[in-house]
Amino acid sequence: xxxxxxxxxxxxxxxxxxxxxxxxxxxxxxxxxxxxxxxxxxxxxxxxxxxxxxxxxxxxxxxxxxxxxxxxxxxxxxxxxxxxxxxxxxxxxxxxxxxxxxxxxxxxxxxxxxxxxxxxxxxxxxxxxxxxxxxxxxxxxxxxxxxxxxxxxxxxxxxxxxxxxxxxxxxxxxxxxxxxxxxxxxxxxxxxxxxxxxxxxxxxxxxxxxxxxxxxxxxxxxxxxxxxxxxxxxxxxxxxxxxxxxxxxxxxxxxxxxxxxxxxxxxxxxxxxxxxxxxxxxxxxxxxxxxxxxxxxxxxxxxxxxxxxxxxxxxxxxxxxxxxxxxxxxxxxxxxxxxxxxxxxxxxxxxxxxxxxxxxxxxxxxxxxxxxxxxxxxxxxxxxxxxxxxxxxxxxxxxxxxxxxxxxxxxxxxxxxxxxxxxxxxxxxxxxxxxxxxxxxxxxxxxxxxxxxxxxxxxxxxxxxxxxxxxxxxxxxxxxxxxxxxxxxxxxxxxxxxxxxxxxxxxxxxxxxxxxxxxxxxxxxxxxxxxxxxxxxxxxxxxxxxxxxxxxxxxxxxxxxxxxxxxxxxx
Length: 571
Ligand code: AMP
Hints:
Bound molecules: adenosine monophosphate
Oligomer: single chain
Number of strands: 27
Radius of gyration: 27 Å
Mean pLDDT: 88
Number of helices: 15
Structural class: alpha+beta
């Protein structure tokens, strides 16, 4: 069985191809969204998902989030007494999702299709593969997120020739892709994006509005307050999706602010963000050489496209209604499951072939001869152009600059700038060239970029046929097979909370977070409830635990909704 996984920055989802269609798999708490958060609890066991997310504030030294942003880099996070690479933290999330799917399907899961942002570099893709491997999953395919969204909507089943745009606004990133379906082949024609623009920026504007209404700057340093404020603002943002206006009160020490916002004022506030959406769209259309009017469909993905102002904007931009119907935060996972179905050669999907594009230009450094006869180095020679359909293989010939030269070094870069210093260096490979009559025949440099976004560089000396081949992986960030094996062993030794205890761990983590946020009698009351629930857990009487857990949960919900944003009782 191959599963489809959306390994997200804030949330991850897993789906399977079942009974002829994609199905989302619920986690141990019954939710389709598993927060991409990992923690180590006080007795050294790993917690993943909602329970870990609740502990972000109460146990920051033992909890990690947003590690997808560091995939492909060597940056580690310290949790309890050990450093974790982003691949390992992602692997723990993947493992938890795998366990959910195994419980749901009643069978072992060993293979997966995992989605990645279209802008992910080679190193980031490689790290995602390693994460899968560390979780005990063979990664059948890395699938670009926009392609997954299109698959979820079954656009690959559409008529003859269709072109569509995927508009994906998530929590922290904006991704635009143009896809084309032609004679049963789905192709990503272009992708562009802004990885500093997402739903969180809209939340941020309302937070700033609250500060402008009378909160002092020093309140920003109160982490518990900021978390509460952000949670309330998030709620207000969502309310503005279904009602014309919203209003809430905020209290910090003796400062008080009332925030009132209607949909028009919110849209006006967000104007600068809405304007930033244009550029990546224009660039993607230009790269794909398609006019907005020629698009057959516009697909929305990412939780932030639930905002009516985004839907209206997309409708205005493209002069057509976007296709909706699926939850935008679920479409990527559903599409990954469609791709998994495709891999399993399910009949319903037999016909479709998929292709993607290489999101960046890939090239090498060259030396140029100037008009005055001198040489200058540092110039970029693109070999594979951005948005070329993959798999692609391109060869270009390069010549030695001087007759004394005994080797040629090919430096591999990714990026769009004219000078290599402004691009990202991916690696290098050298070959020896022999002095003699054929010295100046030069070398053929072949770049091959595959569907998983891995780049192979092959350099062959024209005169001798001698060939050097490397798979490019970015510098220090890369883990050697030996290191992967060692990390695999270390991860296997970690104790993980069993699935069936996760619900109770989540309740306790939530209560502890509330204990930190509340003051006075309420705080004392929550403290007593925690103690009582811990004692009930110690009885190991499952019936008693289940009954009390429900009571505990309801009490927490009641306290949270009552005291949420009422001024705090004086100590
Ligand atoms: P994603 O990464 O796709 O899960 O998107 C997460 C982003 O979507 C966050 O910034 C959320 O605030 C935002 N989001 C989710 N649901 C809604 C909603 N109903 N209204 C407005 N924004 C939402």
